[in-house]
Amino acid sequence: MQVFWHRRDLRCHDNRGLALASGLTGDADGPALPLFVFDDAVLAHGSPPRVRFMLDALASLRESYRERGSDLVVRRGDPREVVPRVATEFGADRVVWNRDYSGLARERDADVRLALDDAGVDRESVHDHLHHEPGSITTNAGDTYSVYTYFGKKWHDREKEEPYPTPEDEHLADADGDPLPSIAALGFDDPVGEVPEAGHDAARARLEAFCDGPIERYEEAREYPARDDTSRLSADLKWGTLGVREAYAATAEAMARADDDAAESVEEFQSQLAWREFYAHVLADEPRVVTENYKSYENPIEWRDDDEALQAWKDGETGYPVVDAGMRQLRREAFMHNRVRMIVASFLTKDLLLDWREGYDHFRAMLVDHDTANDNGGWQWAASTGTDAQPYFRIFNPMTQGERYDPDGEYVREYVPELRGVDAETIHSWHELSDAERTAAAPDYPGPIVDHAERREAALAMFERARGEAD
Ligand SMILES: Cc1cc2nc3c(=O)[nH]c(=O)nc-3n(C[C@H](O)[C@H](O)[C@H](O)COP(=O)(O)OP(=O)(O)OC[C@H]3O[C@@H](n4cnc5c(N)ncnc54)[C@H](O)[C@@H]3O)c2cc1C
Question: How far, in Å, from the CA of 338 to the mean position of ligand 1?
């Protein structure tokens, strides 16, 4: 028997490590005994929406095992002690897991390997969580790419594996499973916002619904938050309730039936999957970027301290309608549309002149799909400190962004109820109205907390000082 240790791969289907442990691939026999360990060091970085999603995903995973005559063994503690103990308790020949590339996970896994060696239990880790493992797509000199374009080309050109098969009853060990803890027992409150349904069935339903239509218009539609036409698969890819090969295979089928325009859209979607792998490569190569700028400037960037402005941004009370709509979508749904993530991140760093790490910490606490590599990549892009970063002098104007990507003001009205009775023109010219006009249009909605034109100049000066170019 082989223990399969689930971590960020909460599914039975298209799970490379599980297929190996259950004897479906490789040269060893199963059956597999599935294990999940609540690790306090990982929970320390958790937040209510993500812990809720994880618990729901685990409940769904346990159900999948029960339907196959097996069950999920659940433990809490330090995996360095728990994993060898479970392997010994069940007399397992080997422990198998899928690799995780974050700095913390790599340290822990190295220790678990040593602990298993000490316990005399064989172990194997495999690559599952991305199509192309960090370090496998490099420049010709063997370095990690610092810009996406060439990485993306190579990513698209490389062959993708087919999904791995699902183990059935005969491949899985009989086991008495364990109850899952409540969210409170793990030390978290219930999330404030809605959390999407978790588990492989829900993920597959989202994938099918997306590949059945929206993927064909994705290239254009993805920019408009009110259309809500993106896949919403980010939490599934983060927690592994969906395998990357299964996701890609569905896009390949959509590609096979697409006309020219639709084919471009499908490819654009596949490129987003490639961006995810690009940022995973960057983080694996340079774990320091979690807290440090990727790109160095001559001098430190002099971010401001302004708790009041930070709080107004978090509360969606900045008086910039599209920014506030985004921040309130985050609170309500533990999610925010990508275009709006870019707008609110630019606003925090270039209008409020606050450190991107403040924004990253808030997103980490609030997003159900928070993923260190993607979140960090997105923030550093917006702050002009990252790979491929927005040049420091290209500063989003939050009003024209709102006008371009939410022309009818639908997204704003959905999330900012104070503006529900207000027409789009008034919404998009909010910063230009007099106090009296604003009070007449929407008495409960604030005026802009900063002047964008002034702050734009201040941001340029701040970056020029950082570049050593100021007088
Ligand atoms: C400031 C900022 C923070 C972000 N934080 C996160 C985060 O914590 N977790 C996260 O998964 N994404 C993050 N993103 C990227 C992107 O906003 C989300 O992946 C996307 O909005 C999720 O919605 P979707 O699944 O409908 O995306 P779709 O447009 O349907 O894209 C499909 C998948 O591709 C991947 N993807 C899409 N865009 C990007 C991107 N720009 N970078 C990397 N991967 C991408 C995601 O896995 C996504 O689920 C962030 C972007 C910014 C600008």
Answer: 6
The 10 Å Cβ neighbour count of residue 143 is: 9
Residue 232 CA to ligand 1 centre (angstroms):
9
How large is the average pLDDT for residues 329-349? 98
Asked if the structure places residue 293 within a domain, the reply is no
Q: Is 60 in the same domain as 207?
A: no
Percent of the chain with pLDDT strictly greater than 70: 100
Tell me the pLDDT band of 470, cut-offs 50, 70 and 90. Answer: low
pLDDT at 471 over 90: no
Sheet holding 2-6, edge to edge: 73-76, 32-38, 2-6, 94-98, 122-126
Kindly state whether residues 320 and 278 are assigned to the same domain: no
In a domain, 170, yes or no: no
Q: Is the CB of 199 under 6 A from ligand 1?
A: no
Q: Are residues 274 and 314 in the same domain?
A: no
| Domain match, 318 and 460 both | yes
Q: Which residues contact 323 (CB under 8 A, 6 or more apart)?
A: 313, 316, 343, 344, 347, 398
pLDDT, tens digit (0-9, with 9 covering 90-100), for 233-275: 999 999 999 999 999 999 999 999 999 999 999 999 999 999 9
Q: What is the CATH number of the domain that holds 94?
A: 3.40.50.620
Nearby residues of 223 by Cβ (< 8 Å), 6 or more positions away: 339, 405
Which structural domain, as residue segments, surrounds residue 102? 2-129
Q: Whose CA is nearest to atom 31 of ligand 1?
A: 272
- The answer to whether residues 295 and 389 touch, using CB atoms and an 8 Å cutoff, is yes
Whether the model pTM is above 0.90: yes
**Residue 92: both structure tokens together:** 């397992």
Is ligand 1 within 6 A of the CB of residue 329?
no
**Judgement on whether residues 364 and 449 belong to the same structural domain of the protein:** yes
Residues 450 and 364 in one domain: yes
Q: How many domains does the chain have?
A: 3
pLDDT at 58: 98
User: Tens digit of pLDDT for each residue in 277-318?
Assistant: 999 999 999 999 999 999 999 999 999 999 999 999 999 999
* CATH assignment of the domain containing 244: 1.25.40.80
Peptide bond into 391 cis (omega under 30): no
Q: Whose CA is nearest to atom 4 of ligand 1?
A: 375
- Mean pLDDT (the chain, rounded): 96
Exposure of 58 by Cβ count < 10 A (0-12 exposed, 13-18 middle, 19+ buried)? buried
